[in-house]
Automatic annotation (TrEMBL):
It catalyses: tRNA(Arg) + L-arginine + ATP = L-arginyl-tRNA(Arg) + AMP + diphosphate. The lineage of its organism: Bacteria, Pseudomonadati, Pseudomonadota, Betaproteobacteria, Neisseriales. Monomer. PROSITE patterns: AA_TRNA_LIGASE_I. Belongs to the class-I aminoacyl-tRNA synthetase family. GO terms for cellular component: cytoplasm. Residues 459-572 form the DALR anticodon binding domain. PANTHER family: ARGININE--TRNA LIGASE, CYTOPLASMIC, ARGINYL-TRNA SYNTHETASE. HAMAP family: Arg_tRNA_synth. GO terms for molecular function: arginine-tRNA ligase activity; ATP binding. The gene is argS. Its EC number is 6.1.1.19. This is Arginine--tRNA ligase. It comes from Eikenella longinqua. It is found in: Cytoplasm. It comes from the Bacteria.
Amino acid sequence: MNLSHILNREAEQAFAAAGIEGAPVVLQPAKNPEFGDFQINGVMGAAKQRKQNPRELAQKVADALAGSSVLASAEVAGPGFINLRLSPQFLADQVHGALQSSRLNVAQAAAPQTVVIDYSSPNLAKEMHVGHLRSSIIGDSIARVLRHLGHTVIAQNHVGDWGTQFGMLVAYLVEQQAQNEHFELADLEQFYRNAKVRFDEDPAFADTAREYVVKLQGGDEAVLALWRQFVAMSLKHAQNVYDRLGVLLKPEDVAGESKYNNDLQPVVDELLASGLAVDDGGTKVVFLDEFKNKDGDPAAFIIQKQGGGFLYATTDLACVRYRVRQLKADRIIYVVDTRQSLHFAQLFAASRKAGWLPENVQAEFIGFGTMMGKDGKPFKTRSGDTVKLVELLDEAVERATALVQEKNPELDGQTAARIARAVGIGAVKYADLSKNRTSDYIFDWDNMLSFEGNTAPYLQYAYTRVQSVLKKAGQWDAAAQPVLTEPLECQLAAELLKFEDVLQTVADSAYPHYLAAYLYQVASLFSRFYEACPILKAEGSARNTRLQLAALTGQTLQTGLGLLGIDTLEVM
Ligand code: ARG
């Protein structure tokens, strides 16, 4: 059972003993560890409702808590908070249990769900750029946490592989292959630009491109084969980025827009037949009363254009239906730029009305803000172009290499390269994942690669330091009963035991920065503990207990960073 469950149960019993029924206890981690490990904030509300003195009522609850074996103290403070401090015996037992468990005491979900996560999802007509970083890594860490908690995660990379640009791209591919038999797609961005130039300057080429679009949509095998070739080349680029980033997406997770092509007309027909969609002067529209346009009329969710063409929305409707019916999703998570929030709100509303998204299936738009340059504008190259993701990762590793060489010049080349990779890529990912995803953030190399502050290098280094202490320790007993005496031992233990609660919060809210903030707290607390409580110089059970705390710290940092998709190192 996790820590907050145990404490909630204790608090509820104490509320009952104090004569408070049906009021929430409102248990929270303490704001300031000086005063306790947790606090109960629910007494004030309960007192107000019952017209009782809050401090007196709080004292009754605190008295009832006094007998708890879990707590060392329960003290009334301020207008009626109760500060709780966990008992050293309880903490020691829990640390002992966590060290014995292969999962650091993190339980598997009692009711595992099938969770579909739509993430990364780049358009294949373009090379992956920094705009794709956030969806890829935020989605990936949510997927990792949910899997870790025992849910079945189905990753869906909803790539943009369909639409009119593909006629042009295939036409250009044919031209290139005619000139060079062994044509390789080296630079997708350049390829796209060249194709566009050809399209604009040569009417014959433009005609061919348009012809290909019609043939593609008509299912012409020859053109489809060419299209598949192009898509395969483009996906190879994306896969290369995922592998370098340590994002778990695999080729089999690709379920792009083209997959739903045959479902689009049926989707429109079904919505028309049920009366949910109407013909509005040739355009097929679902009017949604709960969304108003700027004139105050119901917003129009367009599902088919006048000429018969389908839209992004049509594909997403077909896709929701597929995820519910075929993939049997209990929960669907879309990790997409926050600028698409209205599209998804309308998509969910229309899908619910159509009966394709039943009430018992959760659908969540997990939006994120923009990555900004130091100038406060969207991150660009000096010449104002979008930054390719591959180039960003190259630069990260390059910068980390310089850093590693400076810090540790005697490392052999191979080890240095491995460390630089973990630090460089880790820094980029952590800088992003440690921020509240809904806000924009400033991309700053110096900050993210610093060994001080809330950064990947700081946490990776903290892990390495723990490992080096453990290595120097020689013989010690992980299975012995720990004995906690010092305040910082207790504080560190209490923090380590919050791991499961934090993972649960991330799983529920899909905000990875809660995990990052927690790991930073653990690392900072470990470093204070390390200063205050010598480990290797201590003797007897104190030495062993401190080594146990160090080991649990190391395991928590490693598992936690791993769930953010960040590697740890034994030396650095
Ligand atoms: N390809 C889209 C883009 O780059 C993102 C797709 C998100 N997923 C979805 N089901 N619409 O903007």
